Amino acid sequence: MADSKREIERKYEAATETRLPDLTKVAGVSAVVHRGVSELDAVYYDTHDFRLAADSLTLRRRTGGSDPGWHLKFPVAPGVRDEIQAPPAGTLPGELAALLRSRVRDAEIVPVVRLLTTRDVHHLVDGEGGLLAEIGVDEVCAERLPESGGPTAAWTEIEVELADDGDPALLDAVEKRLRRKGVRPAAAASKLARALEETAPGSEPPGKKERRAAPVTAGDHVLAYIRRQAEAIVTLDPAVRRDLPDSVHRMRVATRRLRSSFKTYRALLDRTVTDPVGDELKWLADELGAGRDHEVLDKRLRTRLGGVPQTLLLGPAAARLRIWSTAHGVESRERILAALDGERYLALLESLDALLADPPLRRSAGHAPGKALPRAVLKDYERLAARVDHAFAQPPGHGRDVATHEARKAAKRARYAAEAARPALGKPARKFAKRMKALQSVLGGHQDSVVARDTLRTLAFQAHAAGETAFTWGLLYGEEEASAAGLERELPQVWARASKPRLRAELKG
Question: pTM value?
Answer without folding.
Answer: 0.90
